[in-house]
Amino acid sequence: MSALALTWRLEIALPLAVLAGVYLVGWTRLARRSPLRCRRRLAAGLALALAGVTAAAVALLGLHAAAHESFTAHMAQHLLLIVVAVPAVLLADPLPAVVWALPAAARRAVRGALVAASAPRRMWRTLTRMPVAWTLHAVALWLWHVPAAYDAALASGPLHDAEHLVLAASAAVFWWPVIDPAPRAPATPPLGWRIVYLVLGAFQSAALGVWLVSAPEPLYAYGALEDQALGGVLMWGVGGAVDMTAVLVLVYRFLAAAERRSRPASLTVPGGQGRMSRFDT
């Protein structure tokens, strides 16, 4: 795989810089209005958001030239976008900061568009329902790796950018019900269903990696079978590792919640004066 080398592309660098700038302005305003107990959470959100934008910049600018020479570099681009940049930004829960970056009139308009009964909110809830989100992401991932579509994107700059935009958007839809950033769904999917959802997602991305590794001949215009196999291993191994790490986090939360539910529902009051009332854990 070719070495990492920055390619200056204003059409990519400018939107990333604007997004980072808007987030920083809103984050600063939000931090000034937040109590001290919320500062640690805000700092974590800032770190995650900047990490996500940095990963996107590495993928789209740092690996741009290499991706036209190496299938492995192109797969690294895809993985940085769908399993690093997008999840990191969603974990930062960026909507409150973005809203606070807007003028007061624009903030009111955005809040009106995000009320539960609004058409954009209803449409987004439909897109991020687990069966729909899983299907959209799997279809996008597999279609862009069909040899004809892949080679067409490699030969056309605008189509290549469209490929990355579609993959990032489908990744946002896929990760949304797992991470549940604002605006949150009225009913968050149970942890058990989120675990099954992620495991199935890991299986389908692993299947793509296995297909690439096991192909008896080059599928794409690069023409190097070893490069293709290495890209498949990257998709299979790195993508699967991120998915399964997320699964382990959810399993931990699931077990912790089960342990809280299994604790005694009442406690004895010191001094033998009776028992405390039942409480919700």
Describe this structure in words.
Helices cover 73% and strands 0% of the residues. It has 281 residues and is an all-alpha fold. The termini are far apart. The C terminus is likely disordered. The chain is globular. The protein contains twelve helices and no strands. α4 packs parallel to α12, α8 runs antiparallel to α10 and α8 packs parallel to α11.
Tags for this model:
single chain, 281 residues, mainly alpha, disordered C terminus
In short:
With 281 residues, the protein is an all-alpha fold.
Q: Calculate the terminal CA-CA distance, rounded to whole Å.
A: 52 Å
Shape: globular
| Tally of DSSP helical segments | 12
The radius of gyration computed from the alpha-carbon positions, rounded to a whole number of angstroms, is 22 Å
Measured as a percent range, the helix fraction is over 70%
Total DSSP E strands: 0
- Largest β sheet strand count, sense and barrel closure: none
Which oligomeric form is depicted?
A: single chain
Structural class: mainly alpha
Strand content: under 5%
Q: How much is the average pLDDT?
A: 89
